[in-house]
Amino acid sequence: MSKVQIETNWISSAGSFIREFEAKFAEAVGTRYGIACANGTVAMHLALATLGLEPGDEVILPTFTMIATINAVTYCGATPVLVDSEPEYWQMDINQVADKITPRTRAILPVHIYGHPVDMDPLMALAERHGIAVIEDAAEAHGARYKGRPCGSLGHAAGFSFYGNKIITTGEGGMITTNDRELARLAWNLRDHAFSTERHFWHKFVGFNYRMTNLQAAVGLAQVEQLATFVEARRRNAREYTARLQGIPGITTPPEAPWATNVYWMYGILVDREAYGMGRDELRKVLADHGIETRTFFIPMHCQPIYWQRFKGQRYPVAERLCRDGFYLPSASSLSLQEIEYITDVIREACPNL
Ligand SMILES: Cc1ncc(COP(=O)(O)O)c(C=O)c1O
User: Fold this and answer.
1) Do residue 61 and residue 160 come from a single domain?
2) Which atom of ligand 1 approaches the CA of 174 most closely?
3) Are 35 and 167 within one domain?
4) Ligand 1, closest atom to CA 172?
5) What tens digit of pLDDT does each residue of 124-156 get?
6) Cα-Cα end-to-end distance for the chain
7) Statement to judge: residues 151 and 231 lie in one domain
8) How is residue 195 annotated by DSSP?
9) Domain count, the chain
10) Atom 12, ligand 1: which residue's CA is nearest?
11) Local structure of residue 103 (DSSP, 8 states)
12) Ligand 1 contact via 333 beta carbon (within 6 Å)
């Protein structure tokens, strides 16, 4: 790819690979349109910007997510409204969403956490009843399916990330997927400074430079072709991890709802201090001493220094528990079965209660 690109000089964001990548990725997700952009954060911002949010408009999202989801709302000057996760699958609690809808609610942002789909049918029915837009944060959910339908095709639009640690990557990169022609047209326009068609350097909206480069799109094209292979590898690794962690007291392995195809972007586990015999942080230390790198789960949005004044007094016990007890194990598609064996042996042998 790079030889062709460099020889043709099309390395900026104007080359043909952008359109090809958009078309191929949209096809993989099962939507009519794909709008490539600089990263997953701006994919969410751009999608929200197409809704024309104003100060005072409310956007509902889970407190248990990565900071980019709520920041995208903040960039629009809108008001973020939080809900907890449900305890079974660790995803946004739809019942709480219903309780938080007001006449100012303009959008809901379900986040498919760690590659497991949110229960979208009741959420879409609720949103439709109230005329509210649903923008999926599918940054972690490439290839994930809900009742057989791909994540990214379930709401009115979705934002994906192609950051280096994602299931498919362009180094940095993002994509909006949607079936809504008008939303797609507006997103393409806003992505590129909102240039107008009638006259160049003529701008009727505040746009952004959120473009992806042609070089990244060429990488993305090669990556989309491997999506199914990467997803299969992650699901196989998850099966292996889960089988080998069975019977260790106090370890909860990641759930998969009957209606879900979890792609295990991260293979996360919970540690019950009492039952396992030591807490999450001590277990991580044992793993680190064996050369195994792990990462703690997200810190909920209502606990973040930048947002806690806004959400003062609000408690979200499921998210707080996930934050306290959760961490993820090495999860790359390239992980070998021997490596999984080694990691799970360390967890088993470290358990004081076995
Ligand atoms: C749930 C979620 N949303 C949004 C993002 C932002 O994506 P990016 O890092 O490409 O800006 C991430 C990224 O890591 C994420 O996990």
Assistant:
1) yes
2) 10
3) yes
4) 10
5) 999 999 999 999 999 999 999 999 999 999 999
6) 53
7) no
8) B
9) 2
10) 139
11) T
12) no
